[in-house]
Amino acid sequence: MSRFLNFDTLSLHAGQVVDPEFGARAAPIYQTTSYVFPDTDTASSIFNLERGGHAYTRITNPTVGVLEQRIASLEGGSAAVCTSSGMAATYCAITAILGQGDHIVASTQMYGGNISLMKNTLPRFGITTTFFDPTDPDACRAAMQDNTKLIYGELIGNPGLDILDLEEIAKIGADHHVPFMVDATFNTPYLCRCFDYGANITVHSVTKWMGGHGVAIGGAVVDGGNFDWGATDKYPTITEPYAPFSGINLWEEFGPSAFATRIRAEAMRDIGPSMSPMNAFLLLQGIETLSLRMDKHMANTLELLDYLSNHEQVSWVNHPSLPSHSSFDLAQRYLPKGAGSIVSFGVKGGRNAGKAFIEACELASHLANVGDAKTLIIHPATTTHSRIDAEALAAAGITEDMVRLSVGLEDVADIKADFDTGFRAAKRVAAR
Amino acid sequence: MGFRTRQIHAGVTPDAETGSILTPIYQSTTYVQPSVDEYLSKGFTYSRSGNPTVKALELKLTDLEGGVDCACFGTGMSAVLATMLAFLEAGKHAIVSDVAYGGTYRLSTKILSRFGIDYTFADTSNADDVASSVRDNTAMILTETPANPTMKCSDIAAISEIAKKAGAVHAVDNTFLTPYYQRPFELGADISIHSTTKYMDGHNATVGGAVISNSQEHADAVRFIQNSTGTIMSPQVAWLTLQGCKTLSVRMDAQSASAMAIAEFLEAHPKVRQVAYPGLESFAQHELSKRQASGFGAMLWFEVEGGVAAGKKLMDNIELWTLAENLGSVESLITHPVTMTHADVEPEERARVGIIDGLVRASVGLEDTEDLIQALADALEAV
Amino acid sequence: MYFDVKGTQVFATTGGKPFDPAQPVVVFLHGAGGDHTVWNLQSRFFAFRGYSVLAPDLPGHTNSEGAPLVSIEAMADWLNGVFEALDCRDVSLVAHSMGCLVALELGSRCPDRLRSLSLIASGLATPVNDALLSAARDKPEAAIAMMTSWGYGAAGHYSRGPVPGNAMIAGGQMVMRGNSPEALHADLTACNDYANGKQAAPQVKAPVQVIVAGKDRMAPKKATDELAAHLPNASVAVIADSGHMVPQEAPNRCRQLLRDFIFQNNPAGQT
What we know:
The complex is a heterotrimer.
Chain A: H1 7-13, H2 40-47, H3 62-75, E1 79-83, H4 86-95, E2 103-107, H5 112-121, E3 128-132, H6 137-143, E4 148-154, H7 166-176, E5 180-183, H8 188-191, E6 201-205, E7 219-223, H9 236-239, H10 250-254, H11 258-271, H12 277-287, H13 290-309, E8 314-318, H14 328-334, E9 342-347, H15 350-360, E10 365-366, E11 376-378, H16 390-395, E12 402-406, H17 412-431
Parallel strand pairs in A: 2-3, 2-4, 4-5, 5-6, 10-11
Antiparallel strand pairs in A: 1-7, 6-7, 8-9, 9-12, 11-12
Helix pairs in contact in A: 1-3, 3-12, 15-17
Chain B: H1 3-9, H2 52-65, E1 69-73, H3 76-87, E2 93-97, H4 102-111, E3 118-122, H5 127-133, E4 138-144, H6 156-166, E5 169-173, H7 178-181, E6 191-195, E7 209-213, H8 216-229, H9 235-245, H10 248-267, E8 272-276, H11 286-292, E9 299-304, H12 307-317, E10 322-323, E11 333-335, H13 347-353, E12 359-363, H14 369-382
Parallel strand pairs in B: 2-3, 2-4, 4-5, 5-6, 10-11
Antiparallel strand pairs in B: 1-7, 6-7, 8-9, 9-12, 11-12
Chain C: E1 2-5, E2 8-13, E3 25-29, H1 40-47, E4 52-56, H2 72-85, E5 91-96, H3 98-109, E6 114-120, H4 130-138, H5 140-151, H6 154-157, H7 168-178, H8 183-193, H9 197-200, E7 208-213, H10 221-230, E8 234-239, H11 246-249, H12 251-265
Parallel strand pairs in C: 3-4, 3-5, 5-6, 6-7, 7-8
Antiparallel strand pairs in C: 1-2, 2-4
Helix pairs in contact in C: 1-12, 2-3, 4-5, 4-8, 5-7
């Protein structure tokens, strides 16, 4: 009886009205700062949030708008706001609802930028965080305080690749009237639509798989529209009058998109971490092939898991699609199309062998990004975490022999051949 | 309306849908047609044949030159090629300025001559030389004034008169002075050609070209070539060029004033043998320059005492000025035509037209005049 | 704003300005399964142009208490109660879908305070098929999917609304989920049972604006034509490419039509 457009169709068409003036098939790049108003009444009604429309590109832009509506649509959310980077998305999403004296409960297994934001930056403004082990939802429940206003985690954790039990955590949030925000960068809406499992907000670094080509930095906050902000008085930024817009009550007037509207009205207006129209255009090109790329990322990942698991120079392989992984069952439940294309593994021979492996690889690029179309590798012990001693490394879940791999879209036979070269070099070093 | 107003507003209307004050970058290959019957009703079908962003630039340049239509191209050379293809064919003859840009010379002698087009390279600074070169089958006269790099000027009105009599098209490469200083159509020319790479863009950001026509018939011929050969300008380039055009007159005035001061400085410098700048009274065609243009531009050349070796030494030692091809940008550039832009022109031909070995070409940018002069003074010291 | 109607708490948004009964009032009434937020791109506009705005939630919907009403007649009584509770005098009633049936019923009964009616995407009746009715009772998620899948046109399905960043279908579904579990079934039952449209419409004396969505699969042209034909004082405006959810799918066009009609028929001191 009911029929909605499917994912691939939405990834090509959602959010875009074919240009009414000339019929241009591709979304025009509105590389403009500002917009001429047809009359003062239209101008005032845009400024007063009486209608949609564009006034200034820091706040909205037609090209960025296409990307925002496409992402919201793919994610199944009520609204999205794009930002200049993934970190800006996280920052805007948190500060839209939290302030001095508020508290976050967050997973320990997160991107270093997220950890640093919560550990170092937000405390300076009176927002504190208690971290919980994502494999233990009870730890999350135990960490909840009276002033907890947010639960935050990455669906596919970093670096252990543990899967967050979305439904369990969402239940904790619901029990406490606290929204559950998920960093969905590693899964994208193609692998998992977190709102289907009770998450309330997702944030993305669209720089990664969403864009897919490593050409533009960007972020997105998606409002799931499924959190009842009015059920508690904990979220005055959403439910109390907002002075700059004639005392608007966002919850009353915007309901399911009140949270996204707050980010637009406050963060975009007062802070301004806006995405550029050109980046939005480039990212739109990437999203057009999101499902094709993700399928190939997953297929290559499975092949490489098999290759690595059977390689004599490999001491261990970590990925949630492996039955040996503690999150295997959760991965099957939340990520049936694949549990992401990040893999970590140990090179026999320790720190120097790991380093030798990286240096001998030619096809795989040695860099600190993830989610590119190209295969990327890094040896955390000698790079991102080189200034940390062995004990601290272990606490961060990083071993000296660990290589982190972001599986790309190359022919998997060529990736294997490249790794063969790397392992031969590692073997020579290990033998010394 | 005045030039400064038109360089900002001509061709650009706020986007109908969103009010976007700037023309959007229509980075789209194709256009959705409302229906079969309304095919082309919105003006665009495929971006080789036309693109709304490129169209905005074409309208602006048409307005600035005072022509009928403009077609934009991927490069200045594509613009020259399109002009030649539009008005020449096997068995036809063209007269081309003997001091035209080296690329124009190469295009004529190495490429189009293979398709049966005859060329005469005439000294267009002498109208009589042009008149005596006219043949029965002469279909086009191409001048470039001032010419690159000799700065030789051609009398646009006199040569337009000759072209009219011969039934030939007079195309003027107006890149050096732009319509802000020189409007060939007011002097009787038929076509104005630009490398928009130069002053139109002005920021070293794009390569592009334009052909502006002064009659619908000529415009149609150029448009036909634009669509048939597909040597088009990209929407991104058009958009950047649209932004550059807005400050064209301001940059031209500032850069030309600097050029005048630099020319005077060089002329007085003991280590400089000669300077060519149309604004100097010593310039052979100073009167013609004053008559047919309202400014002298920001290009000049000079010869250092000591020939090629001294010229090279100067360029190797100079600070601030960049040793790079291109001209017309806000960055000041300096080049050695014999080894760079005009290396393809045979030595005898170079000598004949006045591209002497020690010639140093200067494109004066938008930096402070005193800094540019100081840099030249320091480099001349080292020579 | 919260207020009591016959002892039960009612919520209505006032569009960002305090409610003042001395001003002409624009009342916005939502359709089946909806709430006040469907009007956010219309209500605020009028509130800032000299009107008092009231976009209530029907009983059992979002913020209003009480059991959902199960007949259009009962909803009309309730709406009349709202007018009385707030002493609304010069009222322009704007209604969408099911709300239009309530407006017809009320318009035929108490014409004295109504200055104009704007009926968006409705006929004289709204028959509901059995599959949807039973789903609304037994499988609310399936009913919500049917309603939103059929209700929204291309602008909804492709997230092509004019509010940057907004994807309206998910929001619409959230509103339905947020209502009390019986609300959707009550609304659809009321729609299906209502048979007095033909009798009520000719009694409506106030000027009526019928806004028709060209791509409406719930109130097709045949039904809206019939509605207009039974109204003694009606004008018809068509929004060609909108689906049923006009206030969200074509908010700018919708607001423009409402503005022209209400400014003319129920002028405010300040525009």
